[in-house]
Amino acid sequence: MKNQLLTTQKFKIATGLLLSSLYLSSCTKTEIQPYEPESMARISSFKIVNTSKEVIGAIDNDAKTITVTLPEGLYMTSLEPEIKVAKGATLKQGSDTLITNMVDYFAKGRTIQYPVTATDGSTATYTLIVKSDQPTLHVREVSSDPNTPVVYDQTYGYVFNFIDINTVQPNYPFVGTYETDLTIARASLVDKEGKEYNFTQLTSNTPPGVSNAYVQLTLNSIEGRITGSGSSLKYNKVPAAGDYYVKLRYYSREVILKNPIRIIYNN
After folding, report:
1. Which CA distances in Å does 34 have to 29, 31, 37, 209?
2. Minimal CA–CA distance to 152: which of 72, 225, 78, 232?
């Protein structure tokens, strides 16, 4: 009798477990997601090859972006890309040309895109994003007191007024060569309304030739200051008398001095 009771109890337990498992399996729903084949219109690799060490682009095939990050100390005025696409895909002819004017790219922005088509009919357009690991610019103020700007008298054109801007880091950011053009650097004066007056040239230098890296600006080299030549040479009141902020760009970084300078004319 005892054995019969045990057998009956085991049967009830087994039956309960079976029913529970059947109930749970009936409540579980398996969804099968449709397979979406990968588009053939893809860029498979992107790298910059006109550097001493190639720079690899990070490709996001979902966002259709390519991100290139230039390492610290690399100031390339142009970038030469090497682009490879997936099998069966074609890059639009001429879109893999040299990327020029990188300073303007960082200063003003520019859309650079790479259209791709494939034999399966798919198309894609990738957008290039260029970044730089260049450190932030830190420069010393020309005017130590915002309420007492350094004054530059521009009355006479034959008087060359220089603005010397020293960097906080003695060796950064300027390259070791003596620079007199606008290949890597830009500078301007900004009035209180935000209007800019661009310098047509600047000079930069860095140790060991000098004790501290600097940029030197000449107020006579502002656009519109000098017109004509020879006997018709004229020094114009450009910019007008007033307070201005110095804006300096070196490659991908830009800084505006917090304290203004003052320009005057005594005629």
Report:
1. 16, 10, 10, 67
2. 225
